[in-house]
Amino acid sequence: MSHNFTNRELDVLKCLREGYNNVEISNHLFISVSTVKTHIHYILQKLDISDFDSLVLYLCEHDEIFKKNKP
Fold first, then answer.
1. What's the pLDDT score for residue 63?
2. pTM (two decimals)
3. In the chain, fewer beta carbons within 10 Å around the N or the C end?
4. Among candidates 47, 30, 70, which has minimal Cα distance to 11?
């Protein structure tokens, strides 16, 4: 299953999986909090998920996104 995540979206997903909040992701990736929120918005759209809690649950159940992501 491929969702065509950008490299930066994958970086954000990895941080979310590690439990980082938006400010921590921002600091870790050297991007603004607004940019983090934008990446999360596009991730939610690509996964057809409507809320953040569901995204976190999805990440717990679908580790394969980090193993292979083909365009």
1. 80
2. 0.86
3. C
4. 30
Helix (H, G, I), strand (E, B) or coil at 49: coil
Q: Dihedral angle at the C-alpha atoms of 50, 56, 59, 60, nearest 10 degrees?
A: -130
CATH class of domain segment(s) 7-60? mainly alpha
Whether pLDDT at 23 is above 80? yes
Q: Is 39 exposed, middle or buried (0-12, 13-18, 19+ CB in 10 A)?
A: buried
Closest CA to 28 of 39, 40, 14: 14
Tell me the two tokens of residue 66: 């980090």
